[in-house]
Each structure stands twice: as C-alpha cells, then as structure tokens.
Amino acid sequence: MGKRKRSDKDNNDTVEKLYKKVKKLVKSRRRISSSTSDDEPPLSPAQSSHLDIVSDLEPRDEIPSVEMQTETDGVVDESEDLDPDILQLLGSDPTQNKSFGDHLHKDIATRWKHILTNGLSKEEKLDILKQYLPAENCTNMKAPLLNPEIKSALSDNNIKRDSYSEQKQNQMSSCISAIGKALNLVLSQKDNVPQEIIKILSDAGRLLCDTHHRESLSRRFAIVNSLSKQKREIIKNTKIDDYLFGANLSEYLKSSKAISMSASELRFSSNTAKSNQPQRGQPSTSTSRYPGSLNAWGALRAPAAEPRVYPSQNWRQPPPPSAPRDQRRVPTTRKTRPRNNYPQSRRS
To answer: Where is this region: Disordered (predicted)?
Structure first.
C-alpha cells in the first residue's frame, strides 16, 4: 500500500514539536552555564559538543508558517477573470446579444430620428439624388430595367408595383455612390490613412450592395409568379444585368420556342407511326399470296348502325306499325237472325 500524504495540519504540528524541544534545550543550556563556576569540574567532551550545537540555535517568538502547495485536481477558481486573448480563443459569448451599438452624436441622432419617422421632402431628396449619380465604371448600381417582353405580359397593377421597387433601388444606388465617394477621399490621402474608417465605409457599402441585389430578386419573384408555368420555367434561370431578366431574353425565348416545337414534332411523328400499324381484328393492307383469303381473325365486323345477319338464323321481318287511333276500323254490329216462334216438328 502507498504512503499516506501528510496534510498541512500535520506538518504544522511537527514544526511546533520541534520548536518546543529546541526551546527546552536552549533554556537548559542557559541554566547550566549560569550554575557552573570555577570550582565545578569541567564538562565531558560529549556534553560540551552537545552544548555547542544548542548554542547555535536562537529562540524565536513566532512559529514559522510553512506554505504547502496543495494539489488541485482540475479545480478552477470561477471568480477569476480570464485573459482577453484566452476569451478570444474560446469564442464570443452567445448570451451577450447586443441589440444596439454605440451612441451617435446628439446632432446627428436628432436629424436622423426625424427622417426615420417623417421621411425627406421630395425636393430635398431629388437634390441629394442628383449629387450622387451611379459610377461610370460600375453601371450595375442602377436599378435593372424591366424587359419589354415581360412588361407586355403583365397587368397594370404589377407594372406599378415593379416601378415603385425600381425607384427604391435607384435611391439605394445613390447611397452606394455616396459611400464610394467618401472612400475615394480617404484613399486619396497616402499618409496616415485611418484604416478603421475605411473598414466602416466598406462594410456599409457592401451591405447596401447586397440589399440592392435582394430587391432585384424580390422583383423577379413577384413577376415570375404572375406568368404562366411554361414561361416561368424558361425565364427563371436568366441572370440579372442592365435588365431584370437579362439583355438577351428575346433570343433565349426564341431558342426555347424552337426546342419545344422540335420536341412536339418528334412526338407527333412517333404517334403517327404507331397509328399506321394494323390493329387486332382488322385486315392488313399489304398484298397477300392468296388474294381471296381473309384475315386470320375472321370475318369483318359490320357497322354498328346495321343489324348483324347470320346465315343459320331465319330473319323475321318486324311487324308493320299500328295505324293511328282515328283511322282504326270501327267494329260493325252483327245482325242476328230472328227467332222462329213456331214449334218444330219432331222427326220421326
């Protein structure tokens, strides 16, 4: 069996016992040294060596505290805060969900609150839109136009709804253009470029570009649902460019129409080939070795309107139709012979 580990209490008790023994030895040495005189015989070598060892020890008023390092088996202090680098390795805390960010300047907050609740005036909005036009080397900032082929197939309500979404996208394009202009000003300063400002403006621009793209997808979804199922399958795979369903939509529709026509012709030719084959119970039109022979399946069937005639049966003509009631013969009264009242003579 292994040795039992000593605890801190056992170690302190041992130190106290040793200290008491040393203290007793020091007291006894002092007493012996004071009681000895010149008349007393000298000490033996063993006693003198023992007293020399004890004299080196000095009395202490306090017992030394022995700090013993306790063994901790995976026990962590929960109240201790971890290092920020360790927290970053552990990941973000899912319970700390921030709903709001940093505070804005009070003058910015008051103006933006008013716009968020009441909106901009029409004149002010037009002035801002004119200042921030889409970039020449990024024409996709503009809202994609509705294809004329699709527009001719939509109702008036759907066209108005799409026009309203197009105006929203054009306003987003002005926002993207304004952020891009601010980035150009920052990047033009070659020295001491604040990287934090560049990151913030870039994030805002990317989020607006994604919102612009999602608005285009929303417009397409609303239009596709109002079309027929056949056209829906054709145009749903087109890509967005300057037009909502692609600039080459007309060519795409023509090619799909040609493919559908060729497919229908192939189906028609296969059906006609099957119909030309002789069915069961019908004579074949091909020439036979025996011209007088009939089909192996028996005699031809007579038309459904004519009655069938079989040679083994005697055909009975149907009775003539009855005459009308007013033309029927009236039965005549029979004339009875007068009765003879004379007695008849008996035959002899």
So the answer is: 26-78, 269-348
Which helix (H) or strand (E) segment holds residue 193: the answer is none
* Beta carbons of 246 and 240 less than 8 angstroms apart: yes
Asked whether the predicted pLDDT for residue 29 surpasses 90, the reply is no
CB 199 within 8 A of CB 207: no
Q: What is the pTM of this model?
A: 0.51
What are the start-end ranges of the H helices in the chain?
8-35, 45-55, 84-90, 106-118, 122-131, 148-151, 156-188, 195-224, 229-235, 249-275
Predicted pLDDT of residue 45 = 54
Q: How far apart are CA 154 and CA 44, in angstroms?
A: 129
Question: What's the rounded Cα separation, in Å, for the pair 348 and 345?
Answer: 9
Amino acid identity for residue 256 in this structure: S
pLDDT band at 171 (very low <50, low <70, confident <90, very high): very high
Q: Give the pLDDT confidence score for residue 336 in this predicted structure.
A: 61
Contact 158, 205 (CB under 8 A): no
**By C-alpha distance, which of 35, 241, 12, 280 is closest to 145?**
241
User: How far is 165 from 158, CA to CA, in rounded Å?
Assistant: 11
Integer Cα distance of 268 and 223 in angstroms: 33
Q: Which of 80, 209, 207 is nearest to 142 (CA)?
A: 209
Structural Rg of the chain based on CA atoms: 60
Write down the domain spans for the chain: 8-55, 121-262
Query: With contact defined as beta carbons under 8 Å apart, do 235 and 245 qualify?
Result: yes
Residue 145 has phi, psi (to 5 degrees) of: -80, 155
Total Cβ atoms within 10 A of residue 287? 6
Closest alpha carbon to 145 in 253, 247, 233, 234: 247
202: amino acid identity, one letter: S
For the cut 60, the answer to whether the pLDDT of residue 42 exceeds it is no
Identify residue 239 by its one-letter amino acid code: K
CA distance 276 to 293: 22
Q: What is the pLDDT of residue 200?
A: 94
The pLDDT tens digits for 116-144 are: 999 999 999 999 999 999 999 999 999 99
